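R.M. (postdoc): so does anyone remember the format we settled on? I'll just put the structure tokens first.
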């Protein structure tokens, strides 16, 4: 499959598995899962047919491992704006995590910290390079350093999704270091 088709399918899946499943008539279970055959039937019925092979290729080739497939079901690994419980256990994070953003958001983040906005969690990267790529999606990236170990020690829970993204309910400004 060509790169354009792969990107279109991945974005289509993100839209419907993370944010708007009802748009194509699917219902996610409490954990965010939907049977693959139900998803494929719905995509075809709503004018964007995806083959089982294309779906396998998008899931396998996605560098961020955005989707998980298990027991004939698929779900987005994280980033939902619809109610789901991913069932991820609380874990002790590394001492430092990173968050990629862009300059125009830095003033608000300094004041309010990192908030999940329309998602369930704040997404944190395990390394600076990943955070840089995340921030670069919207413009010139700014990488913030999160004192995750200190934050965890102060009672803030962390979880890690299947694709290695760290999740926090919020990150107060006191735990953030900003570039100078």
């Amino acid at each position: 499959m060509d790169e354009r088709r792969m990107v279109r399918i991945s974005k289509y899946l993100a839209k419907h598995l993370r944010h708007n499943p009802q748009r194509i008539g699917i219902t996610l279970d409490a954990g965010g899962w939907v049977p693959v055959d139900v998803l494929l039937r719905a995509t075809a019925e709503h004018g964007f047919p995806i083959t089982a092979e294309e779906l396998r290729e998008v899931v396998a080739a996605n560098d961020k491992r955005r989707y998980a497939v298990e027991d004939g079901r698929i779900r987005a690994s994280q980033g939902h704006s619809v109610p789901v419980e991913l069932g991820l256990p609380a874990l002790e994070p590394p001492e430092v995590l990173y968050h990629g953003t862009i300059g125009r958001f830095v003033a608000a983040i300094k004041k309010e910290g990192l908030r999940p906005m329309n998602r369930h969690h704040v997404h944190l990267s395990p390394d600076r390079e990943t955070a840089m790529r995340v921030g670069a999606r919207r413009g010139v990236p700014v990488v913030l350093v999160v004192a995750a170990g200190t934050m965890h020690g102060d009672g803030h829970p962390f979880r890690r999704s299947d694709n290695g993204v760290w999740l926090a309910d919020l990150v107060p400004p006191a735990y953030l270091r900003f570039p100078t």
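R.M.: ...and that's the designed sequence above, right after the tokens. Also worth knowing: The longest helix spans residues 3-19. The radius of gyration is 17 Å.
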